[in-house]
């Protein structure tokens, strides 16, 4: 079901349960040098009072590097979630979950900081972010 948006046509995307709240530590899956990321803010989320905003596969969020090189630490970066532990139900009825919660560091325009991605990438993230799909070795 496509509906007319402000610019072009917006695709129908099934709901993905948001399971990575603000403050969560996640794995950095690219080769930028960062190892552990902490989610600081999730873009385009609405939430209730006293409820933590949460991210799902394919969401853009702000992160801080907790473990990694000194030039990446103590500053805010943009990141896209590419894997989550909580099962994602597809339209075909299957449920897909991964071993870890992982993200890749990207710029505001969507360019990746690293050149490669370690491990698989969820199909929901690769549909939203084509540059991540190009760098991915496997898309599940």
Secondary structure elements and pairings:
Elements: E1 3-4, E2 9-10, E3 20-21, E4 25-28, E5 36-42, E6 54-55, E7 60-67, E8 76-83, E9 88-89, E10 95-96, E11 102-106, H1 123-128, H2 130-135
Parallel strand pairs: 4-11
Antiparallel strand pairs: 1-2, 3-6, 4-5, 5-7, 7-8, 8-11, 9-10
Keywords for this entry:
140 residues; 5-stranded mixed β-barrel; 9% helix
Task: Write a brief caption for the model.
The chain is mainly β and 140 residues long. The protein is built from 2 helices and 11 strands.
Structure description:
The protein has 140 residues and is mainly β. It has a domain at 21-44 and 63-135: Ribosomal protein L14/L23 (Ribosomal Protein L14), CATH 2.40.150.20. It has 2 helices and 11 strands; from the N terminus they run βββββββββββαα. It has helices at residues 123-128, 130-135, and strands spanning 3-4, 9-10, 20-21, 25-28, 36-42, 54-55, 60-67, 76-83, 88-89, 95-96, 102-106. The strands form 4 sheets. Strands 4-5-7-8-11 form a 5-stranded mixed beta barrel. A two-stranded antiparallel sheet has the order 1-2. Strands 3-6 form a two-stranded antiparallel sheet. A hairpin with an 8-residue loop joins strand 7 and strand 8 (76-83). It is globular and about 45 Å long. The two termini are 23 Å apart. Residues 1-9 have low confidence and may be disordered.
